[in-house]
Amino acid sequence: MLVLLDQTRLPAEEVELVCTDVPALVRAIQTLAVRGAPLLGIAGGYGVALAAARGFDVAEAAGLLEGARPTAVNLGYGVRRVAAAYWAASGKGEGDAAAAAAALAEARALHREDAQASGRMAEYGEALLEELLPGRAYQLLTHCNTGALVSGGEGTAFAVALRVHRQGRLRRLWVDETRPLLQGARLTAYEAARNGLAYSLLTDNAAGSLFAAGEVDAVLIGADRIAADGSVANKVGSYPLAVLAKYHHVPFIVVAPTTTVDLETPDGTSIVVEQRSGKEVTELTSPQDLSADGGGGIVVAPLGAPAYNPAFDVTPPELITAIVTEEGAISPVTGVGLAELCARSSQVTIS
Ligand code: MRU
User: Fold this and answer.
1) How many domains does the chain have?
2) Among the four residues 111, 256, 298, 316, which has the most C-beta atoms within 10 Å?
3) Residues sharing a CB contact under 8 Å with residue 253, sequence separation 6 or more, in sequence order
């Protein structure tokens, strides 16, 4: 079985969610009990290992898991990588138990590598901040949730803020609440508090006035998919922050492992952006409502009001100061620079 921390119940309670089959894990992914690009890759990989161990059809399981959410490329990467390890072992005629063991070993390797990547991204991200803004204590703005909850280690963008904090150089982490599902308010604020960071929560609409007041030194966000030209899909609301940052001459920094780079997707317009239920907009949802299929909250719009609810938006490379990966940072962001980082990566390539 696969035991997950149910993120829909945070911050009120820390509750484990036990998945004994693939459909349960697919539901957990779709209701955001497990979420965030790197973690989706890890969970997807363990999902394939679970299917193999329980004697389910691995090809069918991989298809279901990969299709659970469309935007974060890590999900497909984790699923395909672990399935490939399973097929390789079963192709050698080693038997079902050996193939299942190979799948589990690969999922564990992916988990471990993600933790290592997180540590290296934090180092590179901190070095980049020092280069861009030398000798300062920073006020950093972040969006959505990018900490240990979404990673094998301490996360992506949040791991950089955490490292800066540990060095006594974080003045404040500004945390966007991240409507409609409040990953910032529910999860990033929870992680910031647990780690003793100086932080303040703001509504997404309040970011503009913070920039205007000169209270943001840099923006740090994660990514769900980075196209070959350096376009970045991340939680909806990231693109307006990039526009604000450009106008106010504030560095806009994306922190993501190379497993989030998808060289097969040529540009931002080719990224499939997940559209979610309008109920998430027309109702104020509580975490428990989320686990009940994104509805059942306090209704705040006329009955039947149509809603626009993309889960992500796409920021073009010209608005991004730098992309930080476990292989280093690139600035300016170019397709060539991105391809070089990926070529340096020791991450397993899946055909
Ligand atoms: O819909 P979610 O909560 O899965 O979206 C997550 C994000 O957009 C994160 O910012 C992104 O995955 C980067 S996580 C390191």
Assistant:
1) 2
2) 256
3) 125, 128, 129, 157, 160, 218, 219, 220, 221, 320, 321, 322, 323, 324
